[in-house]
Amino acid sequence: MNNKSTKYLPLLVTVGQVVIFPYYILWLKQVSLTFTMFAWLFALHSFAAAFGYRLFQKRKPGTISFIYIGMGAVYVLVSLLDHSFELLLYVVLILQVFLGAMQGYFRAWHVQQKSYHLDAVHHYVIVGVTMLGLSFMKIISPVVFLGLFGGVVCLCGIWEYVMKCTLRRKRRSLK
Amino acid sequence: MLKKTWFLAILVCILGTGIFFNIPIEKRKYGLSQTNLTTDYTGLLPEKIDRVVTADNSAALQQIVKQANVEGQHISIAGLQHSQGGHTYYKNGIVLDMKTFNEVLEVNVQEKTVRVESGATWEDVQEAIQEYGLALKVTQSQSIFTVGGSLSINAHGRDIRFGPMAGTVKAMTLLTPNGDIQTLTHEQNKEQLANVLGGYGLFGVILDVTLELTENDLYAIQTEALKTTEYETYFNHVLDDPTIAMHYARVSVAPGSFLQEMYAINYLETGKQDTETPLKGEQGMRLSKLALDLGRQGGPLEDLFWTTQKRYIHSLDGETITRNNVMRSESTFMEFKKPGKVEVLQEFFVPVDAYADYMKDLGKLLSAKDKNEDFKVHNITVRYVEKDDVTTLNYAREDMLGLVILIQHGLNKKDIENAQNIIQQWTDLTLAHAGTYYLPYYRYQTTEQFQKSYPNWKTFKQDKLAEDPNEVFVNLFYDNYLSEEAAYEQ
Ligand SMILES: Cc1cc2nc3c(=O)[nH]c(=O)nc-3n(C[C@H](O)[C@H](O)[C@H](O)COP(=O)(O)OP(=O)(O)OC[C@H]3O[C@@H](n4cnc5c(N)ncnc54)[C@H](O)[C@@H]3O)c2cc1C
């Protein structure tokens, strides 16, 4: 059971991230007011991702559930944020750092998984098919997709966590 | 380098901080536009205008006014459009945009006067007079307004010694409604000036003015926290103390101390003048805006905002500041942009000795806990305005205290009606205490309340029609309160 989740959840999350990214960019552009601000926020995300990547490389591989929950929470929050909120851009600034760092961290963890190379092939194919499929759907608002994806990633995180705990308990009882 | 985690963390911090300080505070778009609807500072009362004329020389303006008389066109005059009731434009009318008519023509150090074109801002004037150790006698607490716009509403601020702004005008060049250019002085043109000053651009275009100046004195800041009930007595001491040149106070609108607590700020003469300290720019506005935004959330956060404000003000005690710098407080942090909501100003004046009773009655009218209500009071500042014998539409028929109120409310019909209803009750309460309300702001008041507050309105109207029989100079304010239909509406 756990083997399956470590095999498929990272695939689902990487595919999901790539699929959701265009919607996230649309949203980011909408809230950024100017292109310069948008570009800076994007740059911040990338730097934060580089930081997240480095951070994981220094750690021992462990559970990733908190990263799933964190990323999911960011997407859910984005879908709930009120556009007329006075301090919106300040919140976006913080979200960009969190999201970037978590994505970098996740990527660094993922490349160390046995299933990574197979996932990479699947990932490209699934993303292509999904994007084609989504192109036939009428977008109401990017935040609907962001919220949905956020919810799914949060569930993945909880699933992963529960599985890890069960596994640990089993191991302990075997001893 | 890129392999170092700390290097990447620093990179994120630097870029994040850079972005933080570049998030724009002034996001609002308002103003003159020929393609879209024209609005003023609040964005309320959008209207289609005919055209905008940028003022750059008086001969061209004269030509436009003469032509308007012949062709039956209407003209409005716009400074920086911080007035909030459509005072600067009119349906299908021409708008004279005075912003570019902004030269400081002469600083006379001996006579302590400055001659300036009316589109200049107070900031422009301060920049020109600062080097001579001179300062303005009366202006608003911010320097973001034009000279012409401020004289046309007869503004007031923190000074408590020099009377109304209108009294500081030595001479004025006016483009009259029939297209003549005249020089006016208080000695020779008392009646005409009484209408032009505080006349909302209805008696012609102020081209340039000569203003009286004073020294750029250095003041020591003195602050005091007090109960609202103590303020009347306290303020009378302030007036009696000749060492206090300027003063203002703030009333709490936080739920925990709503209208009960105040703090006062006095600017005390030090006997020194200052030619060294430069004019200050906008300082700490990002932090001020964040604090104000927190206060805007209401409830415990508003209590926290009030406590922080008090602490900050207390920390200023004993510091020194120049007169010019007192007259150029920060303004950008007040920016408010929330779709479906608006923040407007209102100002009510009550005689000094009516203040305590007035505040008690006001406490019964307003809700202390407005967190979940649409109509929210965010700030009340108190200023002193001396009796004004200079202007016809005078808001201070005796020595008054002015309460400047920052209000937020929604923009749908129900919310506007609710705001209107509360402000009309507030105006009735003010009238019952022999007070008045200020005219540059949004017109929530009824024509009847206008007429009660400004009993000289009839003289003003008659003089207007005598000077400007073709009603060349009009605006939405005139239309609402003084046009034929409005004046007899009640
Ligand atoms: C944040 C804020 C703070 C304020 N604080 C104060 C304060 O402390 N004290 C106070 O008294 N007021 C205060 N006001 C009100 C402010 O002083 C007025 O709105 C003032 O009119 C602003 O100047 P303006 O250049 O924006 O004028 P505008 O709004 O452009 O014009 C005001 C009036 O003057 C007329 N006018 C403009 N130029 C000329 C001209 N050259 N000749 C003839 N008529 C002309 C216009 O037709 C209009 O009727 C404040 C307003 C705001 C928004």
Q: Based on DSSP secondary structure assignment, what is the total number of beta strands of chain A?
A: 0
Alpha-beta content class of chain B: alpha+beta
Category from helices, strands and their pairing of chain A: mainly alpha
Number of strands of chain B: 17
If strands are numbered along the chain, what order do they take across the biggest sheet of chain B?
Answer: 13-10-12-11-15-16-14-17
Q: Cα distance, first to last residue of chain B? A: 78 Å
What are the bound molecules?
flavin-adenine dinucleotide
Which of globular, elongated, flat, extended, rod-shaped describes the shape of chain A? globular
Mean pLDDT of chain B: 93
Q: Main beta sheet of chain B: strand number and arrangement?
A: 8 strands, antiparallel
Give helix and strand order of chain A, one letter per element, not per position.
HHHHHH
- Put simply, the count of helices of chain A is 6
Biggest sheet record of chain A = none
Give the uncertain stretches of chain A in residue-range form.
none
The backbone outline of chain B, from C-alpha atoms, is globular
User: Oligomeric state of the chains?
Assistant: heterodimer
